[in-house]
Amino acid sequence: MTWTVHEGDALSILDQLPVTSIDAVIADPPYNSGGRTPTERTGRSSRDKYVSGHNGNGTAHGLADFAGESRDQRGYVAWLGVILSKCLHATRPGGAALVFTDWRQLSVTTDALQVGGWTLRGIAVWHKPIARPQPGRLRQECEFIVWGSNGPMHPGADPVYLPGLYSASQPRGTERQHITQKPLDVMRQLVRIVPEGGTVLDPFAGSGTTGVAALTEGRNFVGCEITPHYAAIARPRLAEAA
């Protein structure tokens, strides 16, 4: 299996990918979530927004910030729509796009997917067993995966059957290398939407978990990562997985 991590802004890098070279896009964009005012959006770092305390392991506050967390909701849907449009251009007909989001950005993420030209197919749920308790409120223990396709889908003679509900906690301790890192078990299931030997694209590669999942499951991987710190973490992880 092969892998590539392009370091830089996906808006520029995606234009360089060959047409129909990708079988599925699995994206975990910066959510730009929770900023009710300009001050909240621009005055807090990504770590301030997404990390609470030390999570019992003493490592959370040592994680580096990441770029792209200062857009308001209108800016977010416009930006993500452009990204997903460029992803569509690189994806084969019938290929899928799976985009992570939280409850605040769920509705606009479905908009952005369709702005990008994808056919909206549904929403899956990622349940997080370890989530922050909220006194007097419902616990926010789910995030979501908005997904669609590049036109009609063709399951083929040996179709995959994927669940619509995934349950796993974020990595903890030294295994957590990115603030918003997704569980490897969840990502290993999601990459199976691509046939073996196919190629997964992640325009926000972070510390490379999607790529590790793809390589582990016999798929190729192409990633873009704008933050040099995380690109440097992703490359050895991918090399080891390959």
From TrEMBL:
One of its GO terms (biological process) is methylation. The keyword Ribosomal protein does not apply. Its EC number is 2.1.1.-. Keywords: Methyltransferase, Transferase. Residues 28-56 are annotated as: Disordered. It is an enzyme of class 2 (transferase). Residues 22-234 form the DNA methylase N-4/N-6 domain. InterPro entries: DNA_methylase_N4/N6, DNA_methylase_N6_adenine_CS, RM_Methyltransferase, SAM-dependent_MTases_sf. Residues 38-51 have a biased composition (Basic and acidic residues). GO terms for cellular component: cytoplasm. One of its GO terms (molecular function) is site-specific DNA-methyltransferase (adenine-specific) activity. The keyword Transferase applies. PANTHER family: RNA METHYLASE-RELATED, TRNA (GUANINE(10)-N2)-METHYLTRANSFERASE HOMOLOG. Belongs to the N(4)/N(6)-methyltransferase family. This is Methyltransferase. It comes from Streptomyces tateyamensis. The lineage of its organism: Bacteria, Bacillati, Actinomycetota, Actinomycetes, Kitasatosporales.
